[in-house]
Amino acid sequence: MELKELTLKKALNLLDEGKLSSKELCTLTLEQIKKYDPLVKAFLYVNEEWVLKQAEEADKKRKEGKRDLLTGIPLSIKDNILIKGHPTTCASKILANYIAPYDATVIERLKSQGVVFIGKTNMDEFAMGSSTENSGFFPTRNPWDLERVPGGSSGGSAVSVALRMGLGSLGSDTGGSIRQPAAFCGVVGMKPTYGLVSRFGLVAFASSLDQIGPFGLTVEDTALLLQAIAGNDPKDSTSAEIEIPNYLEFIENNLNTTFKIGLPKEYYSYDIDPEITKYLEKTIEILKKRHTMVEISLPHTKYAVATYYIIAPAEASSNLARYDGVKYGFRAEAKSLLEMYKKSRGLGFGKEVKRRIMLGTYALSAGYYDAYYLKASKVRTLIKEDFEKAFKEVDLILTPTTPTPPFRLGEKISDPLQMYLSDIFTIPVNLAGLPALSLPVGLTTDNLPVGVQIIGPQFKDELVLALAYQIEKDLSLKFIPPILKD
Ligand code: GLN
């Protein structure tokens, strides 16, 4: 059994046919982690005993004829999603010893569907970053080139899938944290519509933007994972009450459906790396054979990054106020209460998190609120309206996922603005609450993955998956990092 070519869907078939047990599959996955994780450092937590116990339970269920959607499938989970009884650190020293007291709703759902949790993955501290270098513990490396970043903040999740250390993963996306690392690592990553997937049990960064979503090796795998986690949850007041379609059936039935696809001129006139442009054009050429491609305009795009960097830090500064050394997490020794607050937060949070808290506190403070937060909220509405207008004309929108291929470790870490700009194509989608997916479409001359982004109208997540599935079939490429080949 080779993990290299094994998708989640294929693994399910093998498990169904009795050709493979979950214990065998999970043992292979653990071996893969032992072999490759020392090179890339994608995991913060792997508990072998727990993994094997879950796998045995899944095998037992199958023997009893109980097969749920994902029975026996090993998945990794970003370390800002709570799994009861196991650590959740958000890659922050302030939560280094925190054990989750309850399950996130997505975890509850995956448990009831028979998933085996293989471990918790590394990330930028509290999901703030685009390279996983802001982890409070260690950076993760890109499996395609160990000197480069895997993207972030869900870098560990993307790498675990790229190296088959788990057959899929859950990450979170506030401004691009699923799609950008997916593009950098040559896997599929999807941010669902805001409200499609419950945020209960996801450690909050910017609550009006955060959304949990899946990583898969293929579009089918991603669709299956979305199926498992989507749906209303009374524990999350922003969770929508909508009918969830059968995503796999939908993409299969729409393999030949033609769409009107918008190409936003503002995205295309941005300074994009020529290798990204090359694959984008190639994708457009393929799409032209079946679909109608039209130029569209999203005129407020140029304000998106600035708007995001007011709204996200403002929400973060309020969400992160709870880490004060009193209720949970790290507590510093101190002589007075005030000193204890200051020292706990001062020692517990990393540099980028502190920067965001200061930015956000400033933007929300009396006298500046109108000039910053209120203004940003208004621009956010304009960005949303740009998309609404566009979707009156087109079914879907195609853009690059990132302006460049994966950059080198250390290249952008000392220049936060450069780092922030790497999310220029993903951030508008979160501000508008829309579904979007990154699909790998090629490799640069340096053998680095390139992704394109498909954006859909609100709650039309299935359309996004359908177009991605068509492109994936047309291209018929496999993305296997060179270190897996030997
Ligand atoms: N890179 C962006 C940030 O630093 C987005 C992060 C995310 O989506 N969690 O905020």
UniProtKB/TrEMBL annotation:
The gene is gatA. It catalyses: L-glutamyl-tRNA(Gln) + L-glutamine + ATP + H2O = L-glutaminyl-tRNA(Gln) + L-glutamate + ADP + phosphate + H(+). Pfam families: Amidase. Belongs to the amidase family. GatA subfamily. The keyword Cell division does not apply. Allows the formation of correctly charged Gln-tRNA(Gln) through the transamidation of misacylated Glu-tRNA(Gln) in organisms which lack glutaminyl-tRNA synthetase. The reaction takes place in the presence of glutamine and ATP through an activated gamma-phospho-Glu-tRNA(Gln). Its EC number is 6.3.5.7. The active site is at 78 (charge relay system), 153 (charge relay system), 177 (acyl-ester intermediate). PROSITE patterns: AMIDASES. Residues 25-465 form the Amidase domain. This is Glutamyl-tRNA(Gln) amidotransferase subunit A. GO terms for cellular component: glutamyl-tRNA(Gln) amidotransferase complex. Heterotrimer of A, B and C subunits. It comes from the Bacteria.
